[in-house]
Design a protein that fits this description.
Helix content: 40-55%
CATH superfamily: Thiamin diphosphate (ThDP)-binding fold, Pyr/PP domains
Structural class: alpha/beta
Strand order of the largest sheet: 2-1-3-4-8-7
Strand content: 5-15%
Low-confidence stretches: none
Shape: globular
Bound molecules: thiamine diphosphate
CATH architecture: 3-Layer(aba) Sandwich
Mean pLDDT: 97
Length: 323
């Protein structure tokens, strides 16, 4: 019989591959200019999104920033909905009105995404408060960049969640830059984890591209949070592969260097290769390739469906809008 670890690692690889293939499909298709949405690409975040979302499980809920592709796909695995929204079509849950920055799929636990930096942190905290009151036993994860810890809403939410002992994971995806300004020019402290550890909040920290490590860290965080009834802060470092918004690189803009990026990647390893090599110790390569072909077919089909689908009728623009 297959060990649980092999099953886990196959599932993690499949999700990781799905996210990477979807981002690849965007890069290949964006030039045709029929995805009319700004793209805040997730390339580089895949291991974090997959590890955290897999540990959260089906009942968990996530809230994200505008850089949400990886988390959306890792939680929902809904590539049809993803491309329908990017192509602005009526077959998307938001009927093409959300774009890349406001992806959601509440039935699969992707509650909402927002372009307002840190804007959803207090909202996620509210959802965690509801979970606690309903004795739901599952967790909320709020994903945000290091730029969001410059905002008051983040600090109020860490404080209140610690006070009320809420079942929430604060997932800080730290790529060191708020657009192009490094943390050293924004923060009046050196270590965010040192500051957060003064709250009644568990603190976890990693700098890795290994999805299984992130998964295990998140499981540990959830277990500890359940035991000591504290929220958890997950400080997870990564490197953004592409520019802040768009599908190109930005190493020529002068605020970060390709050397800095390459050094990190060399030290940490590529997220897909790491996981594939690990699997090869347990399973035949043909099994991995079967998964890869399945995912490639799924993504190609999702893009095709989205391209073929209709746009919403004009009066749709006034529906579902809170005013
Ligand atoms: C409240 C608010 N202030 C400023 C902005 C402009 N803005 C857009 S993205 C961004 C940087 C955010 O960086 P970070 O949170 O680290 O996320 P990343 O883009 O690195 O994923 C800023 C300041 C905004 N969208 N919302």
């Amino acid at each position: 019989m297959r060990s649980e670890r092999i099953k886990l690692n196959l599932a993690l690889y499949k999700k990781l591959y799905l996210v990477c293939q979807c981002e690849k499909a965007i890069v290949e298709n964006y030039k045709y200019n029929d995805m009319k949405t700004p793209m805040h690409m997730s390339v580089g975040q895949e291991a974090i999104a997959v590890g955290v979302c897999h540990a959260l499980g089906a009942k968990g809920q996530i809230f994200t920033s505008y850089r949400s592709h990886a988390a959306y796909l890792a939680k929902s695995e809904n590539s049809d909905g993803f491309f329908a929204e990017l192509y602005g079509k009526e077959t998307s849950l938001a009927k093409g009105k959300a774009g890349s920055m406001h992806l959601s799929d509440p039935e699969r636990g992707v509650m909402v995404a927002s372009a307002i930096v840190a804007g959803l942190i207090p909202v996620a905290m509210g959802a965690a408060f509801a979970k606690k009151r309903q004795n739901d036993n599952s967790f909320v994860a709020i994903f945000f960049g290091d730029g969001a810890i410059d905002e008051g809403g983040f600090w109020e939410s860490i404080n209140f969640s610690s006070l009320k002992k809420l079942p929430i994971l604060f997932v800080c995806e730290d790529n060191n830059y708020s657009v192009c300004t490094p943390k050293s020019e924004r923060h009046g402290y050196v270590s965010i984890t040192d500051v957060i550890s003064k709250f009644d909040c568990n603190v976890f920290s990693e700098d890795t591209n290994d999805v299984e490590v992130i998964y295990q860290l998140t499981c540990n965080a959830i277990e500890l949070s359940k035991k000591n009834e504290r929220p958890s802060f997950l400080h997870l470092k990564y490197q953004r592969f592409l520019e802040h918004v768009g599908i190109k690189e930005d190493f020529d803009q002068g605020f970060r260097s390709r050397e800095e990026f390459n050094k990190w990647l060399e030290e940490k390893g590529d997220r897909l290769t790491l996981q594939r090599d690990k699997l090869l110790q347990f399973v035949q390569e043909t099994e991995i390739m079967k998964i890869e072909r399945e995912v490639e077919k799924q993504v190609a089909w999702s893009v095709e469906l989205a391209k073929k689908a209709s746009f919403s009728p004009c009066d749709e623009v006034y529906k579902g809008v809170y005013a």
